[in-house]
Amino acid sequence: MRVNRSTVIKAVLGLSLVLFLFLVGYGWDIASLFHPKRVQEILLKAGGLAPLLYMIVMALTVVISPIPSVPLDIAAGAFFGPLLGTIYSAVGALGGAVTSFLIARFLGRDFIQIFLGGHINFCTQCSNILLAKVIFLSRLIPIISFDIVSYGAGLTKMSLKAFAVVTFLGMLPLTFVYNYFGSALVVSRGIALVSGLVIILFVFVFPRLIEQYDFLSLRRFFQHSDEDQASCEKT
To answer: Domain coordinates of the chain in residue numbers?
Structure first.
């Protein structure tokens, strides 16, 4: 199996990024910097630029996973009101999700594809159909890490458009709940991280088991045309 040098370099950079974020999250008390009251004070000082500043920071909480996003949702609901807070939170989070998706696609997808060529997740049409459902549902469940799922989706051949649409629509209900009800549904960061990793494992491992062994007689739900499969196997 021949591995392109640029692919290895990008994979190493991707792994380095993951390790850096892990060290940042557990080495520094970042959460204390994003207390809702502190965020509101900063937004107040920002004046007319508060919405733009808020959306940029919200995007960063998705890209830099250890930074908690829920305190920002709570602060936005109190500062902008539930409706505008939800809109600003959703737009900012979508920007962060798309950025995370593209980072993973550039740094890690080629390397992953070497070992999983022909997998249903490396057929664009198949990935759009399968992963759109999985990602949409994951956005509705508060215990699943928004950030981890965004990076994981970028490792597949799911189209950016499909990812952006299901991410935006899927996040709206929970984002509104956080903006309206505040901290009532705050979930442990550790639980969210583990659940996000489980979802990514499911996305890559479960379809393979179905395709090879017809596990639980579910193969018919993962079938795709011969043309799609041929395209998958060529990538």
So the answer is: 5-234
